[in-house]
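Supplementary Text 2. Reproducibility record for the structural model of the 557-residue chain.

All settings were left at their defaults, and a single model was retained for analysis rather than an ensemble. We include the record here because the model underlies the residue-level annotations in Supplementary Table 4.
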Amino acid sequence: MKKLFALAIALVLALGCMSAFAAEGPIEGLFYSELPDNTLKITVSTANFGTDQRDTKMMKLWEEKMEEYLGVNLEITWQIIPWDDFRSNESVNLAAKDLADVNTYSQGELVNDYGAQGVVLNINEYADYMVYYPTFVEGVVGGQEGINNPDGSSYVFWDGYDNDVNLAGAQSFAAYAYRFDVLKKYDLKPAETWEEFKDLCAELKGLIDSGEVDAKYVLHNGASWMAFYRGFVGTFHTWDTLYWNGTEWAFGPIEDNFREMLTELHELYELGYINPEFQTDDSADNEAENGEVLIVPTNWAGSVQTWNAQSDEGIEWGLAYLPASDHGTAWKWGSKITGKNLGTTRTMGIIINAETEFPEWIVTMVDYQYSPDIYLMLNWGVEGEDWYLGEDGMRHYTDKYMAQPVSDRPQLLADEGIMSSASARTGIPFVPQIFSTIAAYGDTEPWWNAEKGYYDGHYWYETAINGGVESISPFDRAPVVNVPTETSTARASLKSACETYAKTESVKFIKGELDITDDAVWEAYVEGLKSQFKGFDDIIEAQNAGTDLESLKYYND
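Retained model, structure tokens:
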């Protein structure tokens, strides 16, 4: 009897201790640790994407909304370094187990190995603390199973997207930029096919050589960090990495179609159409703005707007969809899925230190960023002050931005911490992006297609409309792949090493330092690429063996 009494006393004391260390949280019925002074103190490691977001209007509003939702005070120590440096340090920090409580993340499957080691929190163990993130998960092929590892774990809150206008457009590498002023003057037009593109390059080179057009080169790369071939892989129905080609998983840079593309680029180089410094010049911006180049096949949404705003008088840049080839309509990279989703090639998101003191609070906090309360505000700003709802039912930025020159608008938005600026990432990156903002603050850009001729449009909309359904790369609608965690980790390492090798060697093929027409040389290149990762063929085989073709039924574009 005394023992039973002692156990009862112990149970009462234990329950008393639990209640002393439990607190009411934003999700009713769940356990939350009691916070000292009702304050959640955490460290956050993230990047500066061009504008420091910490003292902006939107960051202050984010903190206010977050504190109101959580019902606690926030005390965040921010660790922020430039984006390029941040990405370079990520793998080092993971290996050293040197993580903040919450961390911006951009290395894809690399995290799985460290999650399995107990370095990164398995957020699926805290699924009950998620209210808003699951809505974005539902848009993924296969739903929750589509993002889970084979053991049921998931270590990343993946970057979310709200495709509120339901267009499968893209943000980059989906159109060539042409000097419209030159084309119009000489009664020329952008190319619809690859053969037309080569003919156009020849005509433009002739105009340069005759002195009629004051330019140095026909073609130039958008930036030195870009692989020049990224502007051409879609035309030849291949890719620059491990990708789903519609039939199987393959490594693009060793495919026959990739070799065909390099052969064509070598021909353009030999004919003198391509700037010899295409892979070392920092950026095409100066050349585009001062008229030294006539076509830039690698560019981002907004590049043409910037060039036209900064260009010498008389220079007009415009866009046209990628040229088709014998393979069909050119594929574009990054065709967006409709509705709310996490994308198809998940590489970026947020990870949580497995040793953080208050994981349930942090999971709830990150999950709340997937609420419209947060991501709508951070993408658009404050209604009435930064945007308004137009008669067309669409949101529009106010004259606070739209009355200013196009070139000034991105920085004005960034100064407020509005994410659509692309240089201010407010909250804890990555907060879901709303795609209608892409076309909202810039003026329309010059475009061309065969039906309309020269007209004005927006990059993201026009790449969907001009490309059509046929332009959606199979890679952007790939099936779910189920492979062991160690295989997915190896796959990430394979891609990194082999992509780097392909980028370096491709320059040699384009410039003729390696003979692209020599089968022995090509085979040596293929073997050299495979040697960058031991077990290359085994990983590709495992990738195909783990492919769930049934998952393709989830797509409805």
